[in-house]
Amino acid sequence: MNRFAELLDRLTYEPGRNNKLRLITGYFREVGDPDRGYALAALTGALSFKHAKPGLIRDLIAARTDPVLFGLSYDYVGDLSETVALMWPKSAIKDGSQSHNKPPPPTLTDVVTTLRTLGKTELPGQLARWLDELDETGRWALLKLVTGALRIGISARLAKTAAATLGDKDPHEIELIWPGLAPPYLDLFAWLEGRAEKPVNRDPAPFRPVMLAHAIEDSDFQSLDPADYIAEWKWDGIRVQAVAGRDDRGHITVRLYSRTGEDITGSFPDLVPSLHLPGAVDGELLVVRDGRVQSFNVLQQRLNRKVVSPKLIKDFPIHLRAYDLLGDDENDLRELPFAERRERLETFIKKLGDVRIDLSPTVPFESWDALTAARADPASAGAGEDAEAVEGVMLKRRDAPYLPGRPKGQWWKWKRDPHIIDAVLMYAQRGHGKRSSYYSDYTFGVWTQGNDGDELVPVGKAYFGFTDEELLEIDRFVRRNTTEKFGPVRHVVHEPDKGLVLEVAFEGLQRSPRHKSGVAMRFPRISRLRWDKPPREADRLETLERMLKAEAVEIEA
Amino acid sequence: MTTMRPQDILLPTAAGLCCKPGGFHIDPIRPVERAVITHGHSDHARAGHGAVLATQETLDMMRLRYGENFAGTTQAIRYGEEIRLGGVTVKFHPAGHVLGSAQIAVTCKDTCIVASGDYKDAPDPTCTPFELVPCDVFITEATFGLPVFRHGDAADEVKKLLASVALFPERAHLVGAYSLGKAQRVIALLRGAGYDAPIYLHGAMETITHYYQSRGIALGELRPVKGTKKADLAGTITLAPPSATSDIWTRRFPDPVTAFASGWMRVRARARQGGVELPLVISDHADWDGLTATIAATGAGEIWVTHGQEDALVHWCKTKGLQAQPLDLVGYGDEEESETPIAGEAEA
């Protein structure tokens, strides 16, 4: 447990993805079975046991420490688990001459397997014994684990990738077999270390690694022939894989996976009955009301919900818009060319005959100019009333097989131009990791009418979109034009004639009571530095409010 | 002979802790006629006093920081040596905080007060170990005066650093450490753990570190960062003042891992605030267990608590039946946040 705690501890401070990977892979290499398997389970969220309530932890510490000292400490530290981990008294047997008698600290395996079967009344005693045996970091990790508050900022995907690295395998391979695996994953590690065959996925509805598109650049078109490609709308929803398969007894199992292979079926129970034929559909999850696709803002109401109420299901009816068929009953179609899969998909959707699942239409075009026109005006190019939910077009080679990852030249995404405003840099904050010596997080604002004339109001924050060279330029500007410093934050000069104008691109707007300006941007990034523009010529809040009105109509509809 | 009240011997004043019968101040924050100084950190050892009594090391450090004329006259005193000043005797005992650091025992008639300055009871290869001095009144610091501060073995923290260097051989490891004491201790701990590669120093570290070496502290091969090529810093360890680790200066290192050696690293929020990626819990102050064990062992019936988390420590003393009060001394801080570099060292 102490070694696992050390890993978690290090991961919480490490900002870089690749470095996180190295840390996790290093752990898998160093630590044996079954501990590393339970660690993989903990990191991928695959552990399940009944969590301890904070009250239980409070009772444990209250019985062992002075309440005044606990109060002062908790005040200072600000986190219950951490406070308890740090001030937990050393047990008597740990001290002095009797130290050779102390029980060894529990392993992660001990903790996980014990918690699974432990009765509620036995939990406090067991927890106290473990806390006696572990060190500060071990106690912290244990308390985070048992209270279900293990948030260390890594995705299940990253943990699986780290495991794949151990055996020099493609993470897609792990995703493929993952649904059939269970902690502590002895068979997986045996395969990764070359000691056994690859485990077979017996899951009747397995995930297939998804195929992704490259963003197309203007220069790419010259080398592409329109006749080789099929175009579709790019929907502003959630990419999903809907899989139905028969188990040994002939019953249908249905699963919805996110693009990273996460099982999200539980969040969309209303879609499950519609998937009544065995097959694997690649498509977009959308909210459709009265036959009309709603914006991403509306769909967001359905995302990351633990409890899905009947009202939510009724108010935000979920819909699957299909664009590819990877499996048809027992048949794996991924080797077939896209044009052929598309035909099979059309038949499949017809056979399903369900209102919740429809076909993503193709966009006919003869030339790139024609497609450019369609992209600029989806409403009159076939998307009709759904045009607002179109965020661009997809180009797929007719002869492309379904390949995992982002293969070159097969699929292209051509997004609609983002919304753009000119905003003024107001505050800058130092970044993390590689960027810790750079002011790389920027808060920007637009003009609005204040009590004393025009003033800037912050409307968003962005920390990417610029090149490394531009970062250097902005950093220099920030350092030379700081008006005040607050810890890692600098106030940067922002007056009508002094300051830096940033062109900010973003995907959408939402009303937000948490922001002073009342609006929040989706996916904002710095698209250009406008050294040429005086701040007084930057945009006004009214511009954003107009955009907001256009979007709000849809939410209320 | 009547017993004097402790406050007749030592009394907090605006200039610092004043000993009227002895005619001196301990670690005064304003210029005074006669100063007795516990150790060389800049919040305790200031320039401009008429006469200064301190250990040779402390006097040397003041000279390095403030120049030759930092005081009217100076007098060096050894650990265990006793000096009569006015109506009191003054005796210096090792405090285990940094090289030359001392606790000052002031005895007047039959009352002994120990002003311990900053101290730690944990092992440190770069200075004389802390000595327990029985007394009637013990003046303790409270920098880490909360029971959440338990610092563990510094050698384990250095192992963490070395494990990270092994895992990321293409990156540079930058260790933020206070330049007087902490940096040299970290280097000595690295050597103790068997690390024998050259260790790199930020310019502001050089003078004081070379002084440590001149006093016979073995620190192995040290090199200035200045003038070293970026690529050559891969896989190396560099010691730098904490403020430099988030500075433009770090851009000369290949993908640096930012570590920070400090007792504050025990608390996650504190470590995160500073953007630290590898917190190392290494402290030159006594932790909670050290403070409480020391207080109990001095046998003092009265405890005065200064700079830090006074409330918790005063409360603890009272639950143990000891008289205790916070001593409101201003001007002493967490040196990690307030220390100015040794004079003559520009950013390099």
From TrEMBL, chain A:
<keyword id="KW-0547">Nucleotide-binding</keyword>
<keyword id="KW-0067">ATP-binding</keyword>
<dbReference type="InterPro" id="IPR036599">
    <property type="entry name" value="DNA_ligase_N_sf"/>
</dbReference>
<keyword id="KW-0479">Metal-binding</keyword>
<dbReference type="InterPro" id="IPR012309">
    <property type="entry name" value="DNA_ligase_ATP-dep_C"/>
</dbReference>
<dbReference type="Pfam" id="PF01068">
    <property type="entry name" value="DNA_ligase_A_M"/>
</dbReference>
<protein>
    <recommendedName>
        <fullName>DNA ligase (ATP)</fullName>
        <ecNumber>6.5.1.1</ecNumber>
    </recommendedName>
</protein>
<dbReference type="InterPro" id="IPR026333">
    <property type="entry name" value="ATP_dep_DNA_lig_pp_1105_fam"/>
</dbReference>
<keyword id="KW-0131">Cell cycle</keyword>
<keyword id="KW-0233">DNA recombination</keyword>
<feature type="domain" description="ATP-dependent DNA ligase family profile">
    <location>
        <begin position="311"/>
        <end position="448"/>
    </location>
</feature>
<keyword id="KW-0234">DNA repair</keyword>
<dbReference type="InterPro" id="IPR050191">
    <property type="entry name" value="ATP-dep_DNA_ligase"/>
</dbReference>
<keyword id="KW-0227">DNA damage</keyword>
<keyword id="KW-0460">Magnesium</keyword>
<dbReference type="InterPro" id="IPR012310">
    <property type="entry name" value="DNA_ligase_ATP-dep_cent"/>
</dbReference>
<dbReference type="InterPro" id="IPR012340">
    <property type="entry name" value="NA-bd_OB-fold"/>
</dbReference>
<keyword id="KW-0235">DNA replication</keyword>
<dbReference type="Pfam" id="PF04679">
    <property type="entry name" value="DNA_ligase_A_C"/>
</dbReference>
<keyword id="KW-0132">Cell division</keyword>
<keyword id="KW-0436">Ligase</keyword>
<dbReference type="InterPro" id="IPR016059">
    <property type="entry name" value="DNA_ligase_ATP-dep_CS"/>
</dbReference>
